[in-house]
Amino acid sequence: MAKVLVIEDDASMATALKDGFEYEGYSVSVAKDGAAGLRLATEAPPDLIILDVMLPKMSGLDVCRQLRKDGSTVPIVMLTARGQEIDKVVGLKLGADDYVTKPFSPREVTARIKAILRRCSTGAAAAPDDSAPLVAGDITIDPRTREAEARGVPLTLTALEFDLLAFLARHPREVFTREQLLDHVWGFQVADSSTVTVHVRRLRQKLEADPGRPTHLKTVWGVGYRFEV
Asked: What CA–CA distance (Å, rounded) separates 155 from 223?
């Protein structure tokens, strides 16, 4: 049974999310402020976190920042208010995997977490018969352990970062648009394809010897991205 942590100070929304997730068979914990949410996420790491941006005691952005600073790779889906575009961008840069804009349909949120949890458990980036370690130049990727190294140094990757790297590395020199990557890696489309742009930028920071002059994750201007060995 997957464990979901909901960090949301709006009692009615937290209850609706909790009821919906439990109906789908998930084990759900709820925290009503950022500090309590961070403590729960640290003491009993869940399989996925639903994290509101606007929280008392500690903002959702600060919670996300601290979790990633501490090395947590748990998938984080942030809840943002309509029009808070800066929160979406900042949240993704801090390490959030996805975001949902309020008001939202409970069915939409459930579909998102199902896709993310399914990908984390099975590895959407891997073909069913392709679980052997992948060596691409100075990068090694092991789908079985979901671990990766660059130049012999272990990488701390979120679930989405790992799947994005593994997918692109399996298709060297093939160019993918942002929309295609959303389909193949995320498993669903979001309204703003800049989600992919931010994840590529984050991955470069961890993967490349010089992120400003990447040798592996190349931008194909006006089209998308490709992986070079």
From this structure: 27
| pLDDT higher than threshold 90 for residue 122 | no
The helix/strand/coil state of 78 is: strand
- Residue 77 near residue 113, CB atoms below 8 Å: yes
**Angle formed at CA 73 by CA 139 and CA 64, multiple of 5 degrees:** 130
Report CA dihedral (192, 196, 201, 202) to the nearest 10 degrees: 100
pLDDT at 128 over 80: no
CB atoms within 10 A of CB 141: 23
Identify the bridge partners of residue 177 per DSSP, sorted by sequence position: 224
What is the three-class DSSP state of 210?
Answer: coil
**DSSP structure class, residue 157:** -
Is pTM beyond 0.85 here? no
Phi, psi dihedral angles at 72 (to 5 degrees) = -70, 135
